[in-house]
Amino acid sequence: MPPDLDDFRLRAREWLSSHAPRQKDDGDGDDALGVPGEDEQASVMRAQKLQGELFEAGLAGITWPVEYGGQGLTVAHQIAFDEQASHFELGLGNTFTITFGMCGPTILACGTVEQKRRYIAPMLRGEEIWSQLFSEPGAGSDVAGLQSRAVRDGDEWVLNGQKVWTSGAHYSSFGLVVARTDVDVPKHQGITMFILDMHLPGVTIRPLRQMTGGAHFNEVFFDQVRIPADCVVGEVNGGWRAAVTTLMNERVSIGAGGRASTFEPLLALAHRHGRVTDAVIRQRLVDVYIRERVLDYIGQRIRSAVMSGAVPGPQGSIAKLAVAQLTKRGASLGVDLLGCRGTAWEPGDEPALAVAARLLASPGSSIAGGTDEVLKNIVGERVLGLPKEPQVDRDIPFREVAANAPVARGRPLDIHSGEG
């Protein structure tokens, strides 16, 4: 362990104690939900302010290179900070998870020096929020089947198409977008990743209302969007490699990142409602506890591998799958512990609202960052060594697949219907 680790841990604890409220242990607190009753714009602004303060305190970008605004410390320092932060309600999750868990690591791994100098420090200061534009209406689980098209025109690329389920697009400054740039090669080989200024002419963002009542996700349309050529991340037609980097970091950040306990608030809720002697409730609490502990061990294994210099691998898919299962079981138990308050509550009953909101949001945990089914395939193939699923279009030039013919012919996008 680094010799200064204990001093760093103490410094982080003291800073957090003076800048953030402690995590509640009664089932009412939730970092991802932010302050009860707070609108999204206020939540985003508060998160940006706190992120700027973390940067000034030397607690942002802990493992990121110093030359780009990070602290240049070890993974052990990051783990120490995450352990301390798990006791506090920072409210950074919804706003910055994609920026720091996916986009930043991709720019650092695949971007040019100029891109790193331009974009990394503003990320760390909380000035610029990023989103990830991968999924499409016809290419969600099969990201490589995407049909958004980018064509080179002098010193620019002209982008047309549509993305969907884009978290935080409506308050993001930039995004990483993948588009098809060559239709004469198999689908994985003709993709390029770009840095997209979300305020460019031709970018249209439309919210998707969720059953929670919020609209955190969006569909994004591109109508003749002109992207500078120096915004290519990695190599032209080498975007699949960059996309895999993003996806692996996404699953590790979801599955192995620091997170508040699911079990402790549920146990406190069971005590408060006199349900700890109920045999069925006790069994469900034990189930949540076991899953949480297993997830902790998976996270430790992943972090140890990263500390040894390994790149994120399929273990992140195992962790992300475990998070989804834990999230859904915990949310369901929380509502059952509340009884009638979990389905109908008095105005101003914020604890009941928060528990119900978790239940409504929990199915998304099995979709975002890769569906459970896709992750099980990855685990089966890359961990257990099982045969791959048949992919009849994997080695066929993109334009020769019948479903892709309109895109291969360059048919204009109908931005109003989302066709394309």
Write the layout of secondary structure elements.
Blueprint: H1 5-19, H2 40-56, H3 75-85, H4 93-110, H5 113-124, E1 130-133, E2 149-153, E3 156-164, E4 174-180, E5 191-197, E6 203-208, E7 217-228, E8 232-233, H6 239-256, H7 263-272, H8 279-307, H9 315-338, H10 350-361, H11 372-383, H12 405-408
Parallel strand pairs: 1-4
Antiparallel strand pairs: 2-3, 3-7, 4-5, 5-8, 6-7
Helix pairs in contact: 1-3, 4-5, 4-6, 6-9, 7-8, 7-9, 8-9, 9-10, 9-11
Structure, briefly:
By secondary structure, the protein is an alpha+beta fold. It is built from 12 helices and 8 strands. Strand 6 (203-208) and strand 7 (217-228) form a beta hairpin.
Question: Can you give keywords for this protein?
Answer:
420 residues; alpha+beta; Butyryl-CoA Dehydrogenase, subunit A, domain 2; Butyryl-CoA Dehydrogenase, subunit A, domain 3; four-stranded mixed beta sheet; four-stranded antiparallel beta sheet; 8 strands; 43% helix; globular; disordered C terminus
